[in-house]
Design goal:
single chain, 112 residues, alpha+beta, 4-stranded mixed beta sheet, 4 strands, 50% helix, 16% strand
Length: 112
Amino acid sequence: MNIQIYLGRKNFDSQKAERYFKERKIKYQAIDLLRFGMSKGEFQSVKQAVGLEALIDEQSKAYTQFNMAYLGLSHNAEEALLNHPELFRTPIVRNGKQATVGYQPDVWATWE
């Protein structure tokens, strides 16, 4: 297993996701999404696994700040996510081509 966790700052679900993998002694790579962002290739892989709509955090301040409600799920939305990682819903957990958004231990258990 090659687990990557894209974490958001001060996010309770991100902390729970890290704890989930630590408690089971599963090695993972933690990536600060706000600091490092996500490459286009990684983004396309995650988008293909979960869909674009699942990646957007509609509860974030950035969602209203960047008028994402009016952009819809267009190409501009993808560009906005790549340029403003605070729009992502976290944690994003990747295992190869599989991915989840949010705290989903039931899905992660099937990866083991």
